Amino acid sequence: MSGAGEYLLDGGRVDIASLPKVSLHDHLDGGLRPQTILELADEHGLALPEQTADALGEWFSTQADSGSLPQYLETFALTTGVMQTAPALARVAREFVQDLDADGVIYGEIRWAPEQHLERGLTLDEVVEAVQAGIDQGIEDAMRTSGRELRIGQLVTALRQNDRGVEIAELALRHRGNGVVGFDIAGPEAGFLPSRMGEAFDLLAENWFPVTVHAGEAGDLDSISSALLDGRALRLGHGVRLALDISIEGEDDANTWVSLGRLAHWVKDREIALELSPSSNLQTGAIEEWGDDLADHPFDLLYQLGFRVTVNTDNRLMSDTSLTKELSLLADTFGYDLADFEVFQLNAAAATFQSVEDREELADRISAGFDEAGV
């Protein structure tokens, strides 16, 4: 490695930030700029633990690095706290898209929970419209700044613990022609199986609306099973603990022999994408079964076994990261090269909630970009 965004290959340097990327798992309220939080906090009358952008950014990353998903989620009280007006939502969404563009993202799906942004009188529909207005502005900014065509979709998310699944599913369906491309559930995973929102998932299935579900991050195999069976999930949000259904039977210096359980086989054989977020998975304790270092992450095991792995940031503010940084970390840890990076992006392109024609076009754009980089 030669820096945060450059990859050294055969004596040449490639700027990872310039490579075309797909972002599938990226939370709107986890990607605010610290300076924006400072400015919006004044408008919202919200007290902050730090008073400079640098110090505030460091506070978020320190607080989030707890090894506990519930503690990690506590940091969102500040970010959602400054996202309670239409102008604030539009600004955050616009800057979010600008930052994706700077990271080389050409297609992204932004997930967020509208029910968290109603404290100042906005309706669910108004908050979705405000975020879409910001996304549209950000796309226009990207075209002027980088000249790249950037496509962004919203993933409307329901919070497991609030039992508003049907209401949020209906919201997603109302806006499916206005930027919303899919549905998600998030929040505390343990004790809140996807089956709890079965009526919402039934409604979405009846309307042929795509779903991804946070599963296999803090919960175990039963959570993943419920996401697939009850949620009809086409992707797994994180899904890292699927590795619990993979057994190491033996190994020597050259080979490792494994066996897959039925659930792992199903996910692999159906090519259900895993929205893996390496840095976040370390912070939340999602990989504590295997260790506490990135080298312990089952990412490489899943990749080598042929699962449809994708690389994601989860929350860029809390993890102090970007797709460029995540790819750099994986290259340092597992020795991946640009050909591997391309596989990860093509995996993500195939899993986007777009038409098959648009997925094929996106894959072509990715391959063309990597060809230019010398893959």
Overall geometry comes to globular
Strand-pairing-aware structural class: alpha/beta
Count of separate structural domains: 1
End-to-end Cα distance, whole Å, is 17 Å
CATH architecture: Alpha-Beta Barrel
Q: Total number of β-strand segments?
A: 12
Largest sheet: 4 strands, parallel
Spell the H/E element sequence.
EEEHHHHHEHEHEHEHEEEHEHHEHHH
Count of discrete alpha- or pi-helical segments spanning 4 or more residues: 15
Helical proportion, percent range: 40-55%
CATH topology: TIM Barrel
The CATH homologous superfamily is called Metal-dependent hydrolases
CATH class: Alpha Beta
Q: Which strand order does the major sheet show?
A: 3-4-5-6
**What gyration radius follows from the Cα positions, in whole Å?**
20 Å
Write the SSE topology:
Blueprint: E1 6-9, E2 12-15, E3 21-27, H1 34-44, H2 53-64, H3 69-74, H4 76-81, H5 86-102, E4 105-112, H6 124-145, E5 151-159, H7 165-174, E6 180-186, H8 198-206, E7 212-215, H9 221-229, E8 235-238, E9 246-251, E10 256-260, H10 262-269, E11 273-276, H11 278-283, H12 299-304, E12 309-311, H13 323-334, H14 338-351, H15 356-373
Parallel strand pairs: 3-4, 4-5, 5-6, 7-8, 8-11, 11-12
Antiparallel strand pairs: 1-2, 9-10
